[in-house]
Amino acid sequence: xxxxxxxxxxxxxxxxxxxxxxxxxxSKIVQAMHAxxxxxxxxxxxxxxxxxxxxxxxxxxxxxxx
Length: 66
Description:
Shape: elongated
Strand content: 15-25%
Number of helices: 2
Radius of gyration: 15 Å
Mean pLDDT: 84
Low-confidence stretches: none
Number of strands: 4
Distance between the termini: 18 Å
Largest sheet: 2 strands, antiparallel
């Protein structure tokens, strides 16, 4: 699931993704965002950063996950 958190912050929730695959997926997201976006014949390039959090079902609050 992908969702916009606000302004320029987005989240991608990947349920049941094997832990070894996480850095590979994160790298692919960053690589995809480095490609220029063309809008009305103008190219825009954005910077991207990725933060990772793992939830294994034992935290009861958002603070416990972060």
